[in-house]
Design goal:
By secondary structure, this protein is of the alpha+beta class. The protein contains three helices and four strands, in the order βαβαβαβ. It has a four-stranded antiparallel beta sheet with strand order 2-3-1-4.
């Protein structure tokens, strides 16, 4: 089971700054645009969100960690959590 975070980036923020390289490495989080998500087979998620939205896919066990990071990030305007598979 995966948790997929639909992350809305705050205006003027860099989408690449929402997760540190260390968090991505430790959680094996996959950060992608909607187009990238469709190309790797994700379905059943919103169809678009523009340039200010990223999807972050992580194992269910890492959801609390990513949740804390997103809640404390100035680059994040808001997010929703979706469960996949």
């Amino acid at each position: 089971m995966l948790s997929v975070f639909e992350v809305h980036i705050a205006p003027g923020s860099d989408p690449d700054s929402i997760l540190s390289d260390n968090v991505k490495k430790e959680t094996q989080a996959q950060v992608m645009t909607f187009d990238e998500a469709r190309k790797v087979g994700f379905s059943g998620l919103p169809t678009s969100g523009g340039d200010n939205v990223r999807l972050i896919a992580v194992a269910k066990r890492d959801e609390p960690w990513i949740l804390r990071v997103l809640e404390n990030s100035d680059a994040v305007a808001g997010f929703k959590i979706h469960e996949v598979g």
